[in-house]
Amino acid sequence: MITASVQLVDQQGRATPIFLRLLDRLEKLPEARFSGSKIYDPASIAAGATEATTVPVAGAALGMKAEASFSLDQEGVVLGAYVSSSDVVSVVFHNTTAGAVDLGSGTLRAYVWSPA
Predict the structure, then answer these.
(1) What is the band of 62 on the pLDDT scale with cuts at 50, 70, 90?
(2) CA dist., res. 50 & res. 11, Å (int)
């Protein structure tokens, strides 16, 4: 772990430039972020085919942005995610390879946040 000391206020009580930059970056962070996960074992996915499932994410709402991750090597399978209904994220596994892919059982995570 690296630690650093940063002066946030100058001797006159004014915010320092580094503090102002930090505040600017914080304001650009997503408003709300929620996540959910489940253990999932996708079926073998044929070349060019897709496999879909859902992940419960409390707080997810239509219009929020979504992403997904899988705990195993995806072996050329690309994940797509979107909020499909309140508290539900749909995740699509798309096999972009020339052969079938069987990923095995792993942890599927979904993340959602409000657009900036």
Answers:
(1) very high
(2) 60
Q: Is the pTM of this model over 0.85?
A: no
In this predicted model, what pLDDT tens digit does every residue of 22-42 receive, in sequence order?
A: 767 666 655 658 999 999 999
The residue among 80, 82, 81 whose CA lies nearest residue 96 is 80
Residues 22, 100: contact at Cβ < 8 Å? no
Q: Give residue 35's identity as a one-letter amino acid code.
A: S
Please report the pLDDT score of residue 57 as a whole number. Answer: 97
Q: Mind listing the domains of the chain with CATH numbers?
A: 31-113 (2.70.40)
The helix/strand/coil state of 21 is helix
The encoded tokens of residue 98 equal 């020339």
Burial class (CB in 10 A: 0-12, 13-18, 19+), 22: middle
